């Protein structure tokens, strides 16, 4: 007559040590690696899109200000100029009495400032000729200007703001 109940294990299983610290299986480790790689890929893509979006916003902001400068020159009947030090920009008004350029200080739309999003002006081309970054671009009182191109960048991303002699302004990807 048996004196004890049967155990839950066979005699071979009873001799093995208990499995307390098993660790992770190879499948679990691979799944976690795949999830992390996907997350990193999306994060890197997000950073690139962010730089491009910031540059586009900066280019659109500057293009709008340049259009305002052209319009302001026509409204005032005085030449207005734009210049940049590469990091920011300034608008100038032609002072006929002193025969000089003075900083435009009485316009709500044409105030000096830094380029949006940390953009930088890389090059200035006026009438097809490369010019120093600080050279003024002039808008005449009749709405005309020299054809010009401004190249803006944030990191490796580049955009160009192009204007023709009639003052039409557009933004393109730099070549």
TrEMBL record:
It is found in: Cell inner membrane. The keyword Cell membrane applies. The chain crosses the membrane at residues 24-45. The keyword rRNA-binding does not apply. GO terms for cellular component: plasma membrane; type II protein secretion system complex. InterPro entries: N_methyl_site, Pilin-like, T2SS_GspH. Keywords: Cell inner membrane, Cell membrane, Membrane, Methylation, Transmembrane, Transmembrane helix. Pfam families: GspH, N_methyl. Residues 58-156 form the General secretion pathway GspH domain. GO terms for biological process: protein secretion by the type II secretion system. It is a single-pass membrane protein. Belongs to the GSP H family. This is Type II secretion system protein H. It comes from Propionivibrio dicarboxylicus.
